[in-house]
Amino acid sequence: MNGHMGVRHGTALLVGAVLGPGMLVLPHLAAAAAGPASVLAWAGMLALSVPVALTFAALGARYPGGGGVAAVVGLAFGRHAAAVTGWWFYGAVPIGTVAGALVGGQYVEACLGVNATVAACLILAAAFAANAAGLRTSGGLQIGFVALLVALLATAVITAAPHADPASFTPFAPYGPAGVAGAAGVLMFAFVGWEAASHLSAEFADRRGLLRATVVTLAVIGVLYAGVSVTSVAVLGADMSAVPLTDMLQLGLGPAARPVTGVVAVLLTFGAVNTYIAGASRLGAALAADGALPRWFARGGAPGRTPYRSLGLVLVLSVPVLVAAVDLDVLMRATSACLAAVTSAGVAAAVRMLPRGRHRTVAVVGTGMSLLGLAFCGVYLLVPAVLGAVAIAALHVKPRRSYKIGL
């Protein structure tokens, strides 16, 4: 085996793939949808994560070094399915990056007094400029961002917990089961990313290390999410503000926590937005090389080069999303629907590719639970449906002339 990654490094990367700055605002959005019963939606999504995470770990161990979910889906179901899956992720990025930037913007406005939209535009501009200049967030820096977010969440929970009030949980379910389902739909944003395990396996010195890293990550995510979901409601109530982490930290540490939280939010959201834009620009070039986008966009997709054309397309797609962005909840639900579709396709592919036995059984369970989670996205499933139709149409468009791609 040529890998060199240990369990600690692998755990850090997996935690980073699942845990993102969306956690800065999701407690508020989930509580707005379901009231205190949002804790049930958090618990349900954690239960869903177990078979999904273990399935991707098993898939990665059997097919190490895969090219991501779209490649796995392509092996299982063919070129068209791979293109649709790739488009689901590619189409989610302009929506998700704008949502992420607006999350940072909300915290900047609440903590530092700068208009949220202006702050979001500055975060997006900085991330696109960094990618155009060829700057990438290093693996070490990404791990640093993850550690910072974990520390922020843990500090908020620990310092605010003494102020919990059991009365905050009554009435428990003011919006009934439909509210819990609605909360689960937006929370899908916080429970995707497990597919990273499917292409980390080759980096492990011991393939069993991937399973251990996945189990440790599940424990870390479970503790953090349970702590944040319960404590935020217990301390702030279901009518919490749009910046619950700031309020929890200020309650536990005092007013000095507010400006610090604003700065940390900018760092976290910039790091996430920068990384997703970089990944999407390369995915766009790969889709173009496979014929799922016009081949003109494939230029610059080779390692070490910057795919300026694909990067420009991501920028063009992001502008109307930012202009039309009037509701962060809508953006996060649309992104969740796309990413939930990617996850569902990945575990369904695992059912076909894994041998008979406990791994396939876990994959079957994971597929069923993923499809249930996908159903919670409701009307927002129109977004991946439209993207899938575009992907199929793009595959059937014959280019008028062949392009010489400089890769």
UniProtKB/TrEMBL annotation:
Keywords: Cell membrane, Membrane, Transmembrane, Transmembrane helix. The keyword Transmembrane applies. The chain crosses the membrane at residues 42-61, 110-131, 143-163, 175-197, 209-236, 256-277, 308-326, 332-351, 371-397. Its main location: membrane. It is found in: Cell membrane. It is a multi-pass membrane protein. This is Amino acid permease. It comes from Nonomuraea composti. The lineage of its organism: Bacteria, Bacillati, Actinomycetota, Actinomycetes, Streptosporangiales.
